[in-house]
Amino acid sequence: MYLWGVPDIPPHFLERNAALDGLREKVLRSASSVGIFGLQGMGGIGKTVLATALARDERVQARFPDGVYWVTVGIEPQLTRQQARLTEAVSGTPQSIADVQQGKDCLRQCFADKQALLILDDLWNAADAKVFAALDAGSRLLLTTRDREILTVLGAEEHTLGLLDEPQALALLADWSGCAVSALDDEALAVARECGHLPLALSLCGAMVRDGIPWGDVKEALEEADLGFIEKHFPNYPYTNVLKALEVSVAALEKQDAQAAERYRELAVCRADVAAPETAIITLWEHTGNLSARQVRQLLRRLDSKGLLQQETATSERRVTLHDLQHDYLRAIQTECNGLAGLHQHVLLAYSKKCAAGWPSGPLVMQKTHDSLSMRM
Ligand SMILES: Nc1ncnc2c1ncn2[C@@H]1O[C@H](COP(=O)(O)OP(=O)(O)OP(=O)(O)O)[C@@H](O)[C@H]1O
Ligand SMILES: [Mg+2]
Questions:
Q1: Cα–ligand 2 centroid distance for 56 (angstroms)
Q2: What's the fold here for domain 166-256?
Q3: Which of 12, 127, 177, 203 could disulfide-link 209, Cβ–Cβ 3.0 to 4.6 Å?
Q4: How are strands ordered across the β-sheet holding 310-312?
Q5: Ligand 2 centroid, distance to 256 Cα (angstroms)
Q6: Ligand nearest to the CA of 70
């Protein structure tokens, strides 16, 4: 079975059987004439993870023998580049794409007569989906988005993902914290509530408890977390539960190891929605923290175990991903202290050490670094 671009299942994966069954049933229903499905729900609620579980589901794979393809579209998509990569993945031949219409035509040829599932994750604009909508009748398109309106515009059949219920939220919290669900007390329940039952916030808080912080301290810190700077940069930001959990988790890391927290905050230079090759982070932290590649890998593992980022190590290329909400948080911090310009300067200096004649002359790794770090050059 061919899976292309599909992310890893996250650590401490919680099966959401009812949600998966409902979505699978819709996507597999052969009578559907629409062919476009939309998984909708608020940020951090678990859409990407549920779509990942669907892509890796045996029955889904059996229904789409020509493969399951995944494109993370995101807020600032590089559409022709994504079309070119997808075309190459489907046809096996590299293709240079000059504009989105040519890309769409190429995709139409590649997907002709195929039975494939294409997943467009994290869609912010309906128009972005249209440049990929070139599938044959045997194929299906699944979109994930926070924005219901996009699904209406595209005529997609909607599937809404709701919050975890209390038993699910406690199961996830318990798994991350290393406690049995039966051992969770009122303070742990209050932490789950402070997290708004959002999986990302629950992961961060569970990891803090696993690292030795008592439930009561986590609860208090969440209640006292000051998100004034977020309010300033993102007025009416709806995801404060997750940001509070991030703030408390980074403050705990700061106490434990101030340098590690400083390195983490530097990841504000990573682009949203683009997995950064581990080599890109090594280049940055070798320069800013004087860390060896081994120390960088160790720190990334630590940050991953705290739920502060996601490391992908299963494929040949090791990569690091920040969730959109983690990215928003880091950007807000750097904007607050006017740190972004300085960080970009650091990235350029880190590059210039590696590519004496300018970055395009450097090894391929440096060009990938450029793709994944949001530098203004
Ligand atoms: N079923 C699950 N089991 C374990 N962890 C989960 C699960 N669902 C979500 N998470 C955790 O929560 C994080 C956020 O989930 P996810 O990325 O799926 O949210 P999303 O709805 O796609 O958000 P966005 O709208 O920002 O893209 C994941 O990175 C993972 O750490
Ligand atoms: Mg997502």
A1: 16
A2: Helicase, Ruva Protein; domain 3 (1.10.8)
A3: 177
A4: 276-277, 319-321, 310-312
A5: 30
A6: 2
